[in-house]
């Protein structure tokens, strides 16, 4: 197998795999380098599966709305695998007047951007989802939000990309990018050297260390968050749930299990030794939240918990951008805990950037140079 390609992608998460697939579809030669022994073992297989437009930063909304309108509904067909996509709404729940104020603010910002989302009363919430407790006094309701299966979607992109000729190398930890004649060209791993005319860095938080080797810094930090899955329950409801207080979010999967995520605030304090270890505090904390909102799940059995890192950008939205100072380098990181829902459109946009085509959406909000000091 060759060590040279038109595009070398660093990181085999859903962003790297979706970019690889879209590039290969256009006939480009692509190499994907993944540090782990398996594809998609970062945030991409650990996330809560939310395909959400509501609750997003308005700058990110066009990406989410485009994905929901045009890409998620046909993704299973496109990838040849059922990604378990459901577009049956998102309820963001409130129990106090303070919660309702938070929800109203989010709703106002989203409707101003053209999203169909509205505030509804507790009675209206229970008409949509009768399992929610009387403690819920209202919610924001976005009927076009939904959820999908992150592992199947990530591996779906991977498999289709491979079918189209993309070379994936696992166990290849990138340690450096080198310039040749002023352009990013060489990608050095612990074992090998690869070359590409364009280099896309989609390695989550680790992107920061990688691009530092060509003098670029992305202001982001990483944070560990946790999730859990229950035994299969009888079918209850199809909506994605979240709360104004962010104490949990989640949905019921096709299999019947519920996947819930959340944080106790103690993850990094207690356990962040650089591994994806769960803490003993967080799952009980998430469960206490869930039981108040969905009493029927009080006896549901948890079969597994896990943790994953988010790559949080200083200004709350990703960096998806070529870098003027380093021609040939394209950044795709700092997804700030929202990257799964927008991954289908990000894959297309990255392929357009790498092939120097006009991007289908205006990407100026996601540029790297937004961090330049204003003189
Ligand atoms: C618990 C949890 C819940 C979440 N819930 C949601 C949700 O409901 N909805 C939503 O939209 N988003 C959610 N997210 C965020 C979402 O998972 C991410 O934004 C998305 O997966 C980002 O994809 P990625 O490909 O950039 O990152 P990753 O999947 O992390 O992929 C990066 C890859 O780069 C590899 N890598 C790292 N360093 C190197 C190196 N030096 N060389 C080579 N490869 C390297 C890693 O091994 C990894 O495979 C959640 C995240 C977590 C952790």
**Integer average pLDDT:** 95
What are the distinct ligands in this entry? flavin-adenine dinucleotide
Q: Based on helices, strands and strand pairing, what is the structural class?
A: alpha/beta
Count, helices: 10
Number of strands: 18
Range of helix content: 25-40%
Quaternary structure? single chain
- State which percent range the strand residues make up: 25-35%
Output the radius of gyration: 21 Å
Structural features:
globular; binds flavin-adenine dinucleotide; eight-stranded mixed beta sheet; four-stranded mixed beta sheet; about 375 residues; about 25% strand; alpha/beta
Task: Walk me through the topology.
Blueprint (H helix, E strand, L loop, with lengths): L3 E7 L3 H12 L4 E4 L9 H4 L3 E2 L9 H19 L10 E5 L2 H16 L5 E4 H7 L9 E5 L3 E2 L2 H14 L3 E3 L4 E7 L2 E7 L3 E9 L5 H6 L7 E11 L9 E4 L5 E4 L5 E5 L4 H5 L10 H12 L8 E12 L5 E4 L6 E5 L5 H16 L21
Parallel strand pairs: 1-2, 1-11, 2-8, 4-13, 11-18
Antiparallel strand pairs: 3-7, 4-6, 5-6, 9-10, 10-11, 12-15, 12-16, 14-15, 17-18
Helix pairs in contact: 1-6, 1-10, 3-10
The structure holds flavin-adenine dinucleotide.
Write up this protein.
With about 375 residues, the chain is of the alpha/beta class. Helix content is about 30%, strand content about 25%. Strands 1, 2, 8, 9, 10, 11, 17 and 18 form an eight-stranded mixed sheet that branches. Strands 5-6-4-13 form a four-stranded mixed sheet. The radius of gyration is 21 Å and the shape is globular. The chain starts with a strand and ends in a 21-residue tail after the last helix. The mean pLDDT is about 95. Flavin-adenine dinucleotide (FAD) binds near residues 11, 35, 36, 47 and 48.
């Amino acid at each position: 197998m060759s060590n040279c390609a038109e595009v070398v992608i660093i990181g085999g998460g859903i962003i790297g795999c979706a970019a690889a697939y879209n590039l290969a579809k256009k006939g480009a030669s692509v190499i994907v380098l993944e540090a782990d022994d398996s594809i998609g073992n970062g945030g991409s297989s650990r996330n809560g599966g939310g395909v959400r437009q509501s609750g997003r930063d308005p700058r990110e909304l066009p990406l989410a709305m485009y994905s929901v309108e045009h890409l998620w509904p046909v993704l299973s067909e496109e990838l040849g695998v059922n990604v378990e996509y459901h577009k049956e709404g998102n309820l963001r729940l409130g129990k106090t007047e303070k919660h309702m104020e938070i929800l109203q603010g989010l709703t106002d910002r989203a409707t101003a951007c053209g999203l169909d989302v509205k505030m509804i009363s507790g009675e209206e919430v229970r008409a949509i989802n009768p399992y929610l407790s009387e403690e819920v006094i209202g919610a924001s309701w976005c009927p076009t939000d939904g959820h999908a299966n992150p592992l199947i979607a990530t591996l779906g992109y991977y498999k289709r990309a491979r079918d189209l000729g993309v070379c994936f190398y696992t166990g290849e930890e990138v340690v450096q990018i080198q310039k040749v004649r002023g352009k990013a060209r060489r990608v050095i791993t612990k074992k090998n050297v690869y070359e590409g005319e364009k280099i896309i860095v989609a390695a989550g938080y680790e992107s920061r260390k990688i691009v530092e080797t060509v003098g670029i810094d992305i202001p982001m930090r990483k944070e560990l968050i946790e999730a859990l899955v229950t035994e299969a329950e009888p079918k209850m409801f199809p909506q994605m749930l979240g709360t104004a207080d962010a104490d949990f979010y989640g949905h019921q999967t096709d299999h019947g299990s519920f996947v819930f995520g959340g944080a106790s605030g103690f993850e990094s304090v207690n356990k962040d030794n650089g591994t994806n270890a769960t803490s003993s505090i967080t799952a009980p904390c998430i469960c206490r939240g869930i039981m108040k909102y969905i009493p029927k799940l009080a006896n549901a059995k948890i079969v597994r918990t896990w943790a994953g890192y988010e790559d949080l950008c200083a200004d709350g939205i990703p960096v998806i951008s070529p870098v003027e100072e380093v021609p040939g380098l394209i950044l795709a990181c700092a997804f700030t805990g929202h990257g799964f829902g927008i991954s289908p459109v990000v894959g297309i946009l990255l392929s357009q950037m790498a092939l120097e085509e006009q991007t289908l959406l205006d990407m100026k909000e996601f540029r790297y140079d937004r961090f330049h000091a204003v003189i």
